[in-house]
Amino acid sequence: MSNSKSSVEVKATESDSYLSDGFRVSSAPGEEQIKFIQKRVHEKMDDYREYSFSATEKRVLMIFFDLAQEFDSLEEFFCVSTMVPKLLFNIDSRMYLAQSKDEYQPVSSTENDSPVCIRVPLEMECTGGHLFVPIRGNHEIIDQLPFKPEGDIIGCFEVYPVDDLSEHQMFFFEKYVNRVGFQLHSKLLRRKGQEHLEFVRNLVKDVGHNVIVPNMYFKLFYNRLRDKIENIKKLGEKVQDLEPDVLKKDLDEMYTSLVEQFNEIHSHYEQTSLFLETLLRRRHFEEGRYIVEKRPCNLFKQIIAPQVERYRSRLQERGIRIDLSMGGVPDKEIRIVADVGLLSQVYANLFSNAVKYTREAYFNDGSIDKFVAYGWQYLESCFSDGKCGLKMNVFTTGPHLSADDRGRLFKAGFRGDNSSMEYGSGHGLFFVRQVVELHGGIIGYEAQEGGNNFYFILPYDLGSIV
To answer: Residue 14: what pLDDT?
Structure first.
């Protein structure tokens, strides 16, 4: 062996230290902690002598522990938990997972019989030839779960048939399920952390797509405002040479123009603020997912109209007219229950795409036109449970999407064949789908004469029309 010094220098310090990947490690345990740990080791040694587990039972615990580390997904873990007792004891089992405080769902089984667990007992219970063992989580971190389970019970493990199981064998299953519970709790928290991280990543994309990119228009607004201010300065320099009528006319035009510019900036500011407040709600970050805050609102006045005004000038700049031929919105006042901020961003994304992708189209009557249309229609029993719906449409003229594009339209990161000349991230329609589905709705696309109709349908009660 070489006597040369290691290239890694180990430093003793009283303060916390850090691993190479940046995780903090607290100071070494004190003397009292070391004594307590030693005590617990000896207590466990005594416990296992008292348990008197057979060689097979010990093998079950070891195999389960090894495989619980080897298989990463929850679904594989569920299968391992039930398969190990089946293969080593030839006994069937079924595993249930808590979905809420009072709801448990079967997640794995060694056979196909219907689940018989009607309720989850607070303690191990043998009924009708079945042994039910509650799966308890780690009490110290139980509050990190989405809900507070009664008695820290996060699931149930069912073993059957158990008519000839001894008390010792039942005790073994109780200990086995204890180990299942701690492993399950850790994996649930890990999945929650992964989902939370994925949500934050998507949230960053949503903020970028719905706030930061549109906010670039503030620069355009301010440049236009600066030009108007410069025009006022120039007018002041030559005011002595102007006739009163000419001066009055120029001032009136400047005033009107400044008011329009102010209204446009103020509208953009209001929508940007709404989007930020909606996307950055505290509850989103606490729960790692979008939390929909529904309230009664006026569909047209509070959601659609502000977005139409926001994009009106950009549509006009591209020669795209706004057509109301799809009907509905201007003629009736529709009140829905929805998250105003999130649903406003749905329309913002659809109108933003309309600005970028609307093209001229030829119609059957021989006319050529270039426009965007929006509206709604009531649909009876359009959902699988018989509920009625309100279908919201945003139609744009132009070539139909290809069959391949239609199948991937609402997937994350997708950009169509017609997007190469336009800026975009492929995130807008994916965001639209997320929000619509959070409202219990469905989203879709349909090719129509002269263009493409993007729509979404929300559950709706016809009695809400006023």
So the answer is: 47
